[in-house]
Amino acid sequence: MLFVVIGILVVLALWLIGVYNNLVTLKKRVENAWSQIDVQLKRRQDLIPNLVNSVKGYMKFEQETLDKVMQARAKAISAQGVGDKIKAEQELGGVLGRLLAVVENYPDLKANTNVSQLMEELTTTENKISYARQFFNDSATKFNTKIEIFPNNVIVGFFGGKFESFPLFEVTEAERETPNVDLNF
Known about the structure:
The chain has helices spanning 2-56, 63-78, 81-103, 107-111, 113-148, 152-158, 173-176. It is an all-alpha fold.
């Protein structure tokens, strides 16, 4: 009888260790996915001042747009935590999109090699950010699901705040609007 009890306790301990290790592994994957986003966001934040400085001379009448871009960039750099960074980066993405739309209205500016190169790099970076966000959301969803299902949620409860769910990137209202393409010249 003692061996049966010991056997059950050993199996239970192994199961508990397996669940704990699985949760730690998933949490590390989510953190890695966030790090990949952070790398691309840093790249975008580094490109913005160069683009703004290249554009400033041409866009004297769009100073308000440039100021909003730089303010949003500063806010994004100083944001702490995943949730705050997501909000700040979404705001930056919105004002950056407006800047790129304004640039389209200045033919001389569009023809400038430096501006074209910076816009191309920003577009490439935005594509990388989109892919990294998708990967992060997939990883975070898998982790969030794992910590909420039974009996994992009971085990998560034993470890207090070590396993908290991650917020997801969601489409903002501004991003939901369908772009208006006009090919009538």
